[in-house]
Design goal:
single chain; mainly alpha; 9 helices
Amino acid sequence: MADLLEIADELYALPLVEFTPARDARAKELKGEDVGTQVKALRKPSTAAWVVNLLVRREAEQVDQLVTVGEALREAQASMSGDDLRALTKQRRQLTAAVTQQARSLAVDEGVKVTQAVADQVEATLTAAMVDEDCGRAVRSGLLVAALSTTGIDEIELATAVAVPEALGFTATPREAAAPAPPDLHVVPDPDADKKARAAAQERLDAAEDALGEARSAHDESVAEVEKLEARSMQVQAQVDELKRRLAELEETAEGIDDELGDAEDAKAEARAALRSATQDRDAAAKALDRLTR
């Protein structure tokens, strides 16, 4: 009996346009078997999910590195290590952006142009794989049918994001890019071959230039944000230094007041003793006068 996971692994490795006809053909071959019905029910992946599945099969080491960094990030969060958390968060953003760009290039090689909206979904899926262990397992399966998104705090329903529930324990089979078929010397050459080749090359160039422009814009935005935060940091640090200086002055003033307060308390005690003595002398004199006047 055919294994559903093996069949799914083969189908979700195909070019996006080939998925549905290949799935239907395979289900027809298995007609009458339970697995045939299950194969027929396999959903076509979204473009973003297909790009991630492609990345997992072509660049498994990159995906493993991404998930490993995510595990380290979660450990840093659990231990509340501020320095590690900031460093790993920055590394996570750089890594997901770089791997997303790599995934877009792979998709272009397969003839699929990835829009910015799809690229954002791909990056969100990679981020989810880093911040959530189960999302990482879903991505590694190479059987995604929908993009993922999570903050690592909220729960995500993965059952609808993968082809089959068993995908969470499955690892996609790595696959190399298909080698171009050798030319058929018996086929009459296409008179428009050069024109078509130039059009395809131009399309790839346009896609690459679009991706480059978007990457440059993202870079410029990140540089501007860093400069803004650095300026804000300098401003806050100046305020902190001023507060420290003022605090030192107040502490010095407080010490002087404490010394004066001690002296004043001593003077108060002496005055109180003098008052008590003077009161006693007056009372004695008053009694003596009273006796003399009787």
